[in-house]
Amino acid sequence: MDDTESTTTSADENTGNLCDNPTRDTLAEGLLGLLKPTVDQLDDRVRATRISQLELKQQIDSLNEELLKVRESLNNHPDLDPYVKKLITCKHKVTVVLNILQASQDRLNQIRRMVEKDKPKVKVISEPLSEPEQGTSGVSDKGSIN
C-alpha cells in the first residue's frame, strides 16, 4: 500500500450502506410508532377544540344579535355599547384562536402526510437482511469492515 493512500473511509463511501443499518431502521420505526399516536391524539383534540370554538363563535354572534334587538326594542335605550364592544372583542379573540388552531391543524396534517409517506420506506428498510458472507480479510462483499 502506498503512503498516499488513505485507510480511512469517507462519508461518501458509507452513504450506500444507510439502507443496511438495522439499528437505524429499528430506531426510525420506534420513533414513528411513538409519534403517530401522539400526533393522532393531538389532531383529534385540535379538531374538537376548533369545533367548540366555532360553536362558541356562533353563540356569541347570536347573543350579539339578540342584544341589538333588545336594545332597539327598549324605549329608554340603556347604555349597552360597552357590553357590545366587549362581545365584539371576545369575538375577535375567538377568531384569532380559531386562526391559530387552523394553522396548527394544517401543520399536523403536514406531519401526518410525511409520516404516512415514510411508512412504506420504513417497512421496506426494516425487512431482515441476510448476513453477508465474510472472507478471510474480515471485509464483507459490500466493502464495509466487520
Automatic annotation (TrEMBL):
The keyword Iron does not apply. Keywords: Coiled coil. Residues 1-22, 121-146 are annotated as: Disordered. Residues 133-146 have a biased composition (Polar residues). GO terms for molecular function: SNARE binding. Transmembrane segments: none annotated. Residues 1-15 have a biased composition (Low complexity). GO terms for biological process: endosome to lysosome transport; intracellular protein transport; lysosome localization; lysosome organization; regulation of synaptic vesicle exocytosis; synaptic vesicle exocytosis. InterPro entries: Snapin, Snapin/Pallidin/Snn1. One of its GO terms (cellular component) is BLOC-1 complex. Belongs to the SNAPIN family. This is Biogenesis of lysosome-related organelles complex 1 subunit 7.
